[in-house]
Specification:
The complex is a heterodimer of chains A (320) and B (288).
Chain A lengths: L17 E2 L1 E5 L1 H18 L4 E5 L1 H11 L7 E4 H4 L6 H12 L6 E4 L11 H14 L5 E8 L5 H10 L2 E4 L2 E4 L6 H7 L13 E4 L4 H14 L4 H21 L4 E7 L3 E8 L23 H8 L2 E7 L2 E9 L1
Parallel strand pairs in A: 1-6, 2-6, 2-7, 3-4, 3-5, 5-6
Antiparallel strand pairs in A: 7-8, 9-10, 10-11, 11-13, 12-13
Helix pairs in contact in A: 1-2, 5-6, 5-7, 8-9, 9-10
Chain B lengths: L3 H6 L5 E5 L6 H14 L3 E6 L4 H11 L3 H7 L2 E5 H5 L7 H17 L5 E6 L10 H15 L4 E7 L6 H9 L3 E3 L6 E10 L4 E8 L4 H9 L8 E11 L1 H13 L5 E5 L1 H9 L8 E5 L4
Parallel strand pairs in B: 1-5, 1-6, 2-3, 2-4, 4-5, 8-9, 9-10, 10-11
Antiparallel strand pairs in B: 6-7, 7-8
Classes of the chains: A alpha/beta (320), B alpha/beta (288).
């Protein structure tokens, strides 16, 4: 790939393809130097622009945009994208679908220094799967990576999950960009076992209601607020129904708490073969099974999955 | 005797699948069922295969104080299941639905507030009727009950069906009882409303009553003018059920539909990206 010049690197009105560069930056000045021209080029071209980044960076962009801030959708990624699994359906595709026939330009920063070890594999999977979810779509998603404060591992992974890299005025093709599904599969790793004392409940067709009520009782006792109890119950209900319908009919639910979360694990004998399951909401309103995993991603603060032929474990985390 | 709380808790409009693996349990269940109906002034129709009608009549006379009178006056009717389900030896769902509709009309003409039907379908396997045909029959039977002029419980022997077929059969009923304990599983109560015109849906909607919800919602589709679906009594709805509610509005085309629901359901419809349909207006309401 020929490096673009500063003049044309963010504005290509004829572009009808998907672009997904990682913006490598050090400090707020480089951050603004890398993001503002992208935003302004989008506004100049009349493209819809979304900025979904952590709060402090969002505030800096808002201030730098001045009056133009009102022409840009600004979302705090630590809220909208708390669960990396919901960024594609709830943030990126939602914005693209709200602007049919246009070329959305999005700044999405899903990986920030505060992301935990627990969250990180789901974040990296998300970055890889953006390439699969947006393949063939007309859009551009720029992902800032903080060179100063992120682990080297996160930067290395950004090279694998982004076909293009950007730094200052320079753009170049990533020498280590990998097949999106293969990279996502690298993060499909066994989860540590639940604590030994964690109660386990059976998943059965005629026990779905009893299961939901038992999960609600556990979550209430664990101190989750009522609306979050209901969110958990809906998420577990969707996973349990999937177990009954698609994974041999039975499975188990295990519940425990860690310092930050209520954790609920649903295990069964199925194999989740579609890596984009739960990330692409079905179009239209027709009742289908395709919305179940999407709503699970929407409702939970983190969803971790390990799946292989004959065994799938989905772990839901809700902050206490 | 088991399950009295369940039978007394039934209301007109209910349609319940009852797994009846032990046929010997049936007489006790039927006494309770009939007793609850007679106390509410309803007409009671017991279609039975095992026990045989004559044996059931004898048992009812012996154990249920009001039975002799009710049998004499026609408030309590015991029929041979064969007469309702396979009068010529063949199960024809259409014919059975017509027969039951006629019984409901008759009970109304006789001045009863409603008809309480117990259907014995434990003969299904013996007559070579497969689960899919029965599931289709039960799905359509919902339209008999959703009007609120009758309630029905259907006794099936789960051992006669493969597990997928059994699940389809259960899901064709808005509510079902759990085999082991005869306590309610998730259940829906769906009744058409007159003022405003529409449907009230109460309870829990999930995989175990998916086909039933779709069938009662289909009753709303042809209704003229504005129609109101009151979902404030819906304590749980999975993603499929939630989008089914919106589908009704889409299927009604130009005729407007109002969905009355909790703020939570409205928020979830938005999250599912199905809440914004031109023909659908959402109104926030609290549980009745």
């Amino acid at each position: 790939m020929i490096p673009h010049t500063a003049e044309n690197r963010f504005s290509n009105p004829d572009a009808q393809h998907f672009d997904h560069p990682a913006l490598l930056y050090r400090g707020i000045d480089e951050y603004l130097a890398g993001t503002l021209p992208f935003i302004r080029a989008g506004l100049d071209a009349g493209d819809p622009v979304l900025v979904a980044v952590p709060g402090a960076n969002l505030a800096a962009i808002r201030a730098a945009l001045g009056d133009d801030a009102s022409r840009v959708r600004l979302d705090d990624m630590t809220v909208a994208g708390r669960n990396p699994g919901r960024i594609i359906p709830g943030v990126l595709l939602a914005f693209a679908r709200a602007h049919p026939g246009r070329r959305p330009r999005i700044i999405g920063e899903p990986i920030w220094p505060g992301r935990s070890e627990l969250e990180y594999p789901a974040c990296a999977q998300h970055e890889a799967l953006i390439n699969a979810a947006f393949a063939g779509r007309n859009a551009e998603i720029l992902c800032p990576y903080d060179l100063a404060d992120l682990d080297q591992r996160a930067i290395d992974d950004a090279y694998r999950t982004h076909p293009t890299l950007a730094m200052g005025a320079r753009r170049w093709a990533s020498p280590r960009y990998g097949d999106p599904l293969a990279v996502a599969a690298d993060f499909n790793r066994p989860l540590p076992p639940p604590p030994g004392h964690a109660p386990t409940l059976p998943v059965t067709f005629d026990g779905l209601s009893a299961l939901r009520h038992a999960v609600a009782r556990y979550a209430t006792t664990a101190g989750l607020p009522d609306d979050r109890v209901e969110d958990l119950v809906l998420a577990v209900g969707e996973l349990a129904a999937n177990t009954v319908e698609h994974a041999g009919g039975t499975g188990s639910v295990t519940l425990w708490t860690d310092e930050e979360h209520l954790v609920c694990q649903v295990s069964d004998g199925g194999h989740l073969t579609d890596p984009l399951a739960g990330r692409i909401p079905p179009a239209g309103t027709a009742a289908t099974g395709g919305r179940g995993l999407v709503i699970v991603n929407q409702l939970c603060d983190l969803v971790r999955v390990h799946t292989r032929p004959g065994a799938t474990t989905v772990r839901l985390y809700l902050r206490r | 005797m088991r399950g009295s709380a369940i039978w007394h808790g039934l209301a007109l409009g209910d349609h319940v699948c009852v797994p009846t693996a032990e046929v010997s349990d049936q007489p006790a269940m039927l006494h309770e069922f009939a007793d609850a109906g007679l106390r509410e002034g309803q007409k009671v129709l017991l279609a039975t295969s095992r026990p045989a009608p004559s044996a059931l009549v004898d048992a009812l006379r012996a154990k249920l104080p009001g039975a002799p009178d009710a049998l004499a006056h026609g408030q309590l009717v015991v029929s041979d299941a064969a007469d309702i389900y396979f009068p010529d030896g063949r199960f024809d769902p259409e014919r059975t639905l017509r027969t039951l509709a006629a019984e409901i009309d008759l009970a109304e003409r006789e001045g009863y507030p409603g008809l309480r039907i117990s259907g014995d379908l434990t003969w299904a396997a013996a007559h070579g009727v497969d689960g899919r045909l029965l599931a289709d029959y039960e799905t359509r039977a919902n339209l008999l009950f959703v009007g609120g002029r009758a309630l029905g419980v259907c006794h099936y022997d789960p051992r006669q069906f493969a597990s997928t077929a059994w699940q389809e059969l259960v899901a064709a009923h808005p509510a079902s009882l759990r085999p082991a304990t005869q306590t309610p599983v998730s259940g829906l109560r769906c009744v058409l409303t007159v003022a405003p015109t529409g449907l009230a849906v109460d309870g829990e909607a999930d995989l175990s009553n998916r086909a039933a919800l779709s069938s009662v919602l289909s009753a709303v589709v042809p209704m003229p003018g504005r129609c109101v679906i009151d979902a404030t009594g819906l304590r749980f709805a999975d993603a499929y059920a939630m989008s089914s509610l919106v589908d009704v509005a889409v299927a009604r085309g130009d005729r407007p539909t109002t969905l009355v629901c909790s703020p939570r359901l409205a928020r979830l419809l938005d999250l599912l990206d199905v809440g914004r349909v031109p023909a659908l207006s959402l109104r926030i309401g609290t549980a009745r």
